[in-house]
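INFO  loader      accepted 1 record
INFO  loader      residues=551
INFO  predictor   begin
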Amino acid sequence: MRNKILLIVSFVSFFILISCDKDAKDDEIIEVDLKFTQFDITLSTGEKSIGIIDEENKRILLNGIEEPLDIVSVDYKYSEDVLLITPNPSTIISKWTTIEKFRLHSNKAYEEYTIEIPDYVERTYENKATIAPLEKFGRVTKYHMFDMNHNAGALNNISNAERAFGEAKMNGLRVPLYCGDAFGGHPEEGVVVESVYTTVLKSIENAKAAYSGAEPFMIFAGLKVLTSDKAEYFPDWVTTEAPTVPNPVKYAQLVVDYIEFMHEHGHEVNYVAFDKEAARMDVTDFTIAVDELRARTASLGYVVPKIVAPEFYKPLGESGSFNDLYKINGQDRFDVFGNHYYLNHHNVTNHPDLKFEYELAQSDKYREAWATEAHWDKIRCSSNYEKKSDIWTSEYAIGCMFDWTDLGLDLVSWWDYSLSGGNSPRNYIMRAYTESLIGSQPIRMLDHDGEEVLSRLKLHSRAYIRDNEVNVFFINTVSPCNTTFTPPFYEEYPVGILDGFKIDGNISVTQWDDDDQPSGESFVIKPITENQFLIDITTGSFTHVSFKITQ
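INFO  predictor   done
INFO  writer      dumping tokens
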């Protein structure tokens, strides 16, 4: 028995000794050699920078590098005890900064090295374009009106009405007046054929149901003239001996009948345009028609509609009848300056006429200015219609809008406005521009080609501000009919923000340069300084840039 006890004690003692010996070994510090023995880089130019290793301070200097992003490869070596390096230098090639840290790992230890690029010089860019948020001009564009003259049934689908008056925040409708024999809406005095207006009434009801604005819903009535026979613009009971010229008193009564008809269906007509795209009454008859309309609607207890004029096909300048209206002191016969100004009018010949009439309309009192039928038509260069690119015609279509907003624009109504989708860039660009425009005002922007946008073969740009949001548009196209000039590619085009403002956050960009990609390419860029960004403006492109600013 005693022997067994001695044996057990011996075994216990042995295991205690073994255990103590193991603990003693665990407490020993096992030194490992963790260091870089080489750290060289190659630049995009092919030049190399040999790393200077400061082993004492665990630093490596890479001299002769002015831009870390020019690093294309790294050649490094380390001591035998190193099992792992974090991060792997090859994974940060396109993200290299002036100071990077790398750890060399063994099983139980690591050593951290700091890699420094002491010769880095921050790149600076001289602004090619500047935006001055405090230099506002023109007007705030308050209203976006849906044009039913183009398609009266467009809003018969309630989802379209919700897109227009819910999502797009439209404010009203431009509705057709079907007065001629071609449409049959007004066959005799006091009679309005309801079936002719069934589609119009349904669209108005849907639009008003979807309307979400704070201001009163607006209805603007204008003559529907889309017929090849001008003699059918008016019914026989309204015309004079000249079938294309209305009797002003009877024409005023026809419009009163229309207003009464709409009132009976619960709709108030707020604005009326007597003429559309051609002057059919002389200025004396125009004043008579306006006086009759105002007097008769007032006597019947209806809201007297405001008159929109001149509503011609294009501005006519000093030689036009709008100027004649002022010559007979008839300027109090209209309330809103509204006119059509199409793609082929955006030039040095026709623009002065628009400016003349605009300023004439403001000469006696402040009046709202409406682009009542903004168009984006195809530009056909030859009979085979081969060249009709949407993006390339943006120089004209959006250029027309630049002309309007430079003067001061209160309302825009596009002919054939696409509420969603579409298979051409025109639809997406039109929506992007218009939705950025509403509630915005132009601010001064100068690019390297200057500020005017009527000259061809140049970069055109405009900037608008809405609260602290800035929207910028670049048009880098020429007419698709011009085959002798190709716009340049402006790579890393520097744009600066003036007046002490800073860019707040990232910058959203959508760029269209391919008709086969109608929605364009959208991406985000970061400012390179607090008040400057770089943008690639590709050849043949329309570019929308949006960002917020702060002081």
